[in-house]
């Protein structure tokens, strides 16, 4: 943030609603638990409103939410900015024709799946998830959407 920018007062309120859990899921990690944020309707709404204010005028046509918490934040953001919501699911959760992207985790591998007909050429995507650890899931989501020709 530059000197001339004013910090939005909602951010401090949101921060106070996120519980920090030391040594979870393993020693040395300071886990930022958003489930406590979801228990406070004002803080949850403020969080969604901040995203909406940031992205509403960016011609986003697709909000892609990564399972599962990306669904919690992505759906209301999509509705508010007038975009369609596309769930990026874990394996074998979507019926019909899908495309997928495999990715490596620190403890193995996984994959994200999406319906083939969920996005169109020319769509502009916003990817929503609740955290970035190693970045593998986010990279997989970007690759999946890029393969559909919708991410710059």
Task: Give structural notes.
This protein has 2 domains: 7-57, no CATH class; 59-151, 3-Layer(aba) Sandwich (Rossmann fold), CATH 3.40.50.2020. Helix 4 (69-81) links the parallel strand 3 and strand 4. With 152 residues, it is α/β, with parallel strands linked by helices. The protein starts with 8 loop residues before the first helix and ends in a 5-residue tail after the last helix. The chain contains 5 helices and 7 strands. It has a 3-stranded parallel beta sheet with strand order 4-3-7, with helices on both faces. A two-stranded antiparallel sheet has the order 1-2. Strands 5-6 form a two-stranded antiparallel sheet.
């Amino acid at each position: 943030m530059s000197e001339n920018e004013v910090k939005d007062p909602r951010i401090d309120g949101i921060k106070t609603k996120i519980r920090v859990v030391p040594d979870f899921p393993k020693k040395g990690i300071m886990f930022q638990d958003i489930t406590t944020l979801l228990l406070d309707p004002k803080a949850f709404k403020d969080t969604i409103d901040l995203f909406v204010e940031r992205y509403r005028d960016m011609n986003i046509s697709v909000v892609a939410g990564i399972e599962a918490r990306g669904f919690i934040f992505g759906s209301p953001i999509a509705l508010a900015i007038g975009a369609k919501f596309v769930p990026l699911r874990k394996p074998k959760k979507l019926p019909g024709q899908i495309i997928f992207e495999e990715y490596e985790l620190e403890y193995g591998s996984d994959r994200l799946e999406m319906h083939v007909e969920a996005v169109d050429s020319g769509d502009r995507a916003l990817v929503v998830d609740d955290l970035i650890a190693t970045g593998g899931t986010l990279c997989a989501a970007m690759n999946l959407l890029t393969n559909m020709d919708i991410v710059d």
